[in-house]
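seq as requested:
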Amino acid sequence: MKKKIIYFVTLFLLLSVSGGCQKNESENFLLKESGEKESGREVSEPEESMKENLQEKKKIYVQVNGAVKNPGVYELEEGSRIFQAVELAGGITEEADAGALNQAEMLKDGQMIRIPRYGETEEQLSQMEGAGQEDGRVNLNTATEAELMTLPGIGTAKAKSILAWREENGSFLQVEDLMKIEGIKSGVFSKIKDSVKVD
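struct tokens:
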């Protein structure tokens, strides 16, 4: 009888000890696994923020005119192509000679894109582009009402106000003079300041 009791007590102790070891091992394993996950998270979070920073591209402004539905100045991401600017301008019209322009060309800030019409010669195009807008910006001192209306936020009324101010006060000395005109405040000015110039 004593032998049986000793046997059961010994067996019970062995099972208790081995169960405790397994528990410790499983706890260690869980701790190790969660530690690896945490360390993995610490590595991946900075990588994600770096990717987001890389994705924040600079903005550029280009002027699109010629045979497009909505000529004007448009904001795009740096590295955009001509065809993307044309899409923003509502696409080409039926009279556009789309094959005369490389629409895959990469855009530069301040660039002017003119979509030619069928029958326009290179000489005519160069004359139109040479009308004081070589860099794509509208010259406030020589621009017509139609040219001013290609600027974002400038409709007929504001374009006429700019021309009236120019007649009364003479040439614009700096682009900031636009804010002296009634109806052109800092909000409108911030949209067009990179698309205009004074000579």
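The two ends are 115 Å apart (CA to CA).
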